[in-house]
Amino acid sequence: MSDVASFIGGIRALLVQAAHPEVAAGVFQHSEYREDPLGRLSRTSSYVTSVAYGSMPEVKVAVGRVRGAHRPVSGTSERGRPYSADQADLAAWVHNALTDSFLTSYRTFGREPLSEEDADRFVAEQTTVGALLDASPLPSSAAALASWVRDHPDLGGSPGLVGAIEFLKSPPLRPTLKAGYKIMFWAASATTPERIRVVLGIKAYPGAIVAGRLLIKILRWAMGASPSWKLALMRVGAPIPEHLFTQDLPIGDSGRRNPE
Questions:
Q1: Dist CA 135 CA 203 (whole Å)
Q2: What's the CA gap between 130 and 12, in Å, rounded?
Q3: How confident is residue 37, by pLDDT bands cut at 50, 70 and 90?
Q4: Which residues of 142-161 are buried (b: 16+ CB within 10 A; e: fewer)?
Q5: What does the alpha-carbon distance between residue 166 and residue 150 come to, in Å, rounded to a whole number?
Q6: Which of 20, 52, 8 is nearest to 153 (CA)?
Q7: How far apart are CA 18 and CA 162, in angstroms?
Q8: What mean pLDDT is reported for the chain?
Q9: What are the start-end ranges of the H helices in the chain?
Q10: In this predicted model, what pLDDT tens digit does every residue of 11-28 receive, in sequence order?
Q11: Deepest of 28, 60, 70, 259, by most Cβ within 10 A of its Cβ?
């Protein structure tokens, strides 16, 4: 989670999540991502950082905010199915797609190889967060999770999907950032299961993964590992691999972790 490969994982998660018509409808009908994309990204990043590196009180606050934001999200999808963001199966799709995407991206673009044992441990740890969201089912191994996402029976096209893909292909970024983002988008697409790519109407271009690895290597050199990880290591008194960190700690005037 601390590696810059998570940037590609985040994009992949949004792509995969959009393949579920009821999830896509909830985002399309209720989210402000088109009007305030950076605000949405900031809130999502804050949530991911909090549940990955925060103390349990911080984790519960972050989960509580998400559940509070989800409470009014309900309606009917374009294929006529009622939905609510609190539904266990929809919460599971969002959570499991996020876990699978971060894991897949690290295993494809990460700093070092990840063993099957560590991959399974990561997935099992993430089920703790999913349980706080009342998500179900929550596969507890990497292979079971990948299979559950890839073969999910409720996927399909929808207007919400079309809107999400159009936005993700060309978000309102500064021109200096767009070239790098494009590489990450196509790298994320290339790691998405073929069945889901067909639903989304995206392709796996030759060379996308090689280009993604090169970009991530450059970003890793420039940015290092997440300083939130370093702060978490300090909190629990764990050894700190100093050579991995290049950024300042995310602290405010009081010396406490800045939730923003």
A1: 30
A2: 19
A3: low
A4: beebbebbeebeebebbebb
A5: 22
A6: 20
A7: 9
A8: 91
A9: 5-17, 21-30, 37-53, 56-70, 88-109, 116-132, 142-150, 159-169, 175-190, 194-200, 208-223, 227-236
A10: 999 999 999 999 999 988
A11: 28
Residue type, 7: F
Q: Give bridge partners of residue 82 from the DSSP assignment.
A: 76
- On whether the CB atoms of residues 158 and 77 are closer than 8 A, the answer is yes
Supply 126's token pair: 């993430």
| Cα separation values, 5 from 57, 93, 159, 201, 214, Å | 27, 21, 30, 24, 11
pLDDT of residue 111: 93
Which amino acid is located at 169 in the chain? K
96-153: pLDDT as tens digits: 999 999 999 999 999 999 999 999 999 999 999 999 999 999 999 999 999 999 999 9
Reference 188, options 12, 59, 7; nearest CA is 12
Amino acid at 174: R
Parse the chain into domains and list their residue ranges. Answer: 5-223
Residue identified by tokens 């999770």 is: 145
Grouping H, G, I as helix, E, B as strand and the rest as coil, residue 60 is: helix
